User: Which sequence fits this backbone?
């Protein structure tokens, strides 16, 4: 048996992120992308949670 066990639903974009600046992700070519998914991991804690 060969191949991937995962079904490739979406094509992957050829991006390599170099660093982040606040809510922006910057590629190795200097292109900037707004990170819309960064808050999902902390959403359950709420704002200013102790």
Assistant:
């Amino acid at each position: 048996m060969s191949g991937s066990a995962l079904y490739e639903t979406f094509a992957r974009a050829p991006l390599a992120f170099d660093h982040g600046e606040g809510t922006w992700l910057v590629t190795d070519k200097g292109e900037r992308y707004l990170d819309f998914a960064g808050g999902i991991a902390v959403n359950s804690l709420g704002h200013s949670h102790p």
